[in-house]
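Supplementary Note 3. Input sequence used for the single-chain structure prediction.
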Amino acid sequence: MKYPPWWGYGYFLELHNSIFSDVDHQPLNELLSLVKHCASQDEEILKQIDAIKQGQEELKQGQSDLQQGQQEIKQGQSGLQQVQEILKAIKWQDKESISKSCEDVLSYFKTLETLTKVQTEFQPKLLASPDVPSTRTDDIFTNLMIQRERKRLKNFESFSRWEQLQEYNKSSAKNHIDKCHSRRIHQPRS
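The predicted structure, written as discrete structure tokens, is reproduced below.
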């Protein structure tokens, strides 16, 4: 590689001589002020370089914080998606359980109705009962007595043994529901 002619030893020698000739002609106070000025400029340059380095470090820290924040957002989004999937599954199960429970109740009601018809079909039209003097099989579907507990006797000791036995098995009707066919189970609206 060839260097330009002005790069030779002679060029540096001339440059060196010209600088020394300029310095030799100036008084020492001026040289000292020039050196101080150059040193202060060097300090300012070094401060600016430090400020630039500090800014670069802050940018790197900001970028790492930003990346960490993005990762946290992604994790939050994945957690939110999991929660949404769980909620969808719960909604689906609730809909299935509601529809199944309504179907179960309706099938139980129909089965109970058919079994009651089958059991009461062969009974005599007038059923002798101490509580209800004339019970017909049709009344089973129109009137319903819900038995809660056995009838408690007042003054149990004052009754004879025969009266105690007759009164012991009598049931007390707590609730009386008329027209059972009007009580239907309605499915909830979706």
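Residues 23 and 177 are 124 Å apart (CA to CA). Residues 28-121 form the longest helix (94 residues).
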